[in-house]
Amino acid sequence: MGVAGSQILICPATTMDAVGINAIYAPFVVGTTVLSETEPPSVSDMASRIEVNIKTYGYFVAESAGMILGYAYGSQYRPRPAYQNSAEVSVYIAPVAQGRGLGQAIYKALIEHLTDLGFYTLIGIVTIPNPASARLHKACGFELVSAL
């Protein structure tokens, strides 16, 4: 898969990716209603989030020519023991790379990783309306559980 003629590499994220990840995430915080945050995190806060998740659930980036085009990660769904084999999953794609299958590719890497870790219930929370995210989750095998 290519963006502007370049190959896409999907690999585990590191804290060094926090700047690129934050550059993708911040516009979702300030320019949309799909997130519950009202202020973008600092780069150091994002690095801390990455560090926690790479140790427990996984965090992947998609990059091309040294530029991060998207990322996906798993996180704890609920703290109660009954949910120990469940994980919440999230994916964010830079506007320049949207609509090219990158979300599916990076989700595939994350889902395989979480499955290998023993997770068997994955939950993607989609704020409605968000038809692109709803299509992505359906394409990745998620089922709609509830909508108001």
What does this structure look like?
The structure is a single chain. This protein has helices at residues 18-31, 43-56, 102-116, 131-139, and strands at 2-3, 6-7, 9-12, 59-64, 67-76, 86-93, 121-123. With 148 residues, the protein is an alpha+beta fold. The chain is built from 4 helices and 7 strands. It is 35% helix and 24% strand. Helix 1 (18-31) packs across helix 2 (43-56). The strands form 2 sheets. Strands 3-4-5-6-7 form a 5-stranded mixed sheet, sandwiched between helices. The chain has a two-stranded antiparallel ribbon with strand order 1-2.
Labels describing this entry:
alpha+beta; Aminopeptidase; five-stranded mixed β-sheet; two-stranded antiparallel ribbon
Please write out the topology.
Blueprint: E1 2-3, E2 6-7, E3 9-12, H1 18-31, H2 43-56, E4 59-64, E5 67-76, E6 86-93, H3 102-116, E7 121-123, H4 131-139
Helix pairs in contact: 1-2
Q: Distance N terminus to C terminus?
A: 36 Å
Taken together, the total number of domains comes to: 1
Strand order of the largest sheet: 3-4-5-6-7
How confident overall, as mean pLDDT?
A: 91
Do you know the CATH architecture?
3-Layer(aba) Sandwich
Shape: globular
What share of residues is helical? Answer: 25-40%
Secondary-structure content class: alpha+beta
Task: Let me know the CATH homologous superfamily.
Answer: Gcn5-related N-acetyltransferase (GNAT)
Order of helices and strands: EEEHHEEEHEH
What is the count of helical runs?
A: 4
Can you tell me the CATH topology?
Aminopeptidase
Radius of gyration: 15 Å
What fraction of residues sit in β-strands?
15-25%
The count of strands amounts to 7
**Level-1 CATH class name:** Alpha Beta
